[in-house]
User: Fold this.
Amino acid sequence: MTEKFPIKNLLLGVTGSVGVLVVPHYVKLLREGIAENVHIMMSYSAKKFVTPYSLRLYSGNYVFTDSFDISDEVRVPHIDLTRKCDMFVIMPATANIIGKVANGICDDLISTAVMACMSPVVFIPSMNPNMWFSKANQKNVSILKELGHHVLPPSEGYEVADMKPSFGSMPEFEEVADFLKNVHLLNLQKKNKK
Ligand SMILES: Cc1cc2nc3c(=O)[nH]c(=O)nc-3n(C[C@H](O)[C@H](O)[C@H](O)COP(=O)(O)O)c2cc1C
Assistant:
């Protein structure tokens, strides 16, 4: 683990929460001090908020948006990209992707990639407080943790639907960075014990 880049290959799964609007900037910050390489997958809904082009611009890598996407280096994205990643971060994570992963559903690129991933998977949810505290979502979040995934809860912030401050927003980048570094460190310690 180098001081400059604690994580070598970070895979980012971007889903359709309005919190995605900060993600191009967060990708830039990840590349400046957290991850040497950032590869990105986007859901169909995420593309309504930001474009694959803007995330490619910031990550420097082709952005995958479909299970059947193919590039010169990557033939089967959910297998090839998860095999080489040291950590898979779903940011922002919608109630939808949380529900799908909690129930073993693989009906798009990101949910299928989570199932295939052998590295630590981190969820950074962002959603309206009614959605976050709903019984279904809380149950699904507990299941994610039981499955061994890591979840950084949302923060106080600005809710777009009501145009006012509210709970459920994306955490500040520093909080995200500390959480990812801790998960990575725990994983290294676990591997060294084996
Ligand atoms: C304006 C707008 C904002 C939304 N924000 C959120 C959100 O913050 N969190 C969330 O879980 N879903 C949000 N949704 C709903 C998701 O986009 C929707 O559930 C979608 O099916 C998620 O698909 P995905 O998980 O494949 O990206 C929003 C929808 C709209 C139209």
Summary: The mean pLDDT is 94. Residues 15-19, 43, 45-46, 94-97, 126-127, 131 surround flavin mononucleotide (CB under 6 Å). The beta strands are 7-14, 35-42, 63-64, 87-93, 121-125, 150-151, 155-159, 164-169. The domain at 7-193 is CATH 3.40.50.1950 (Rossmann fold).
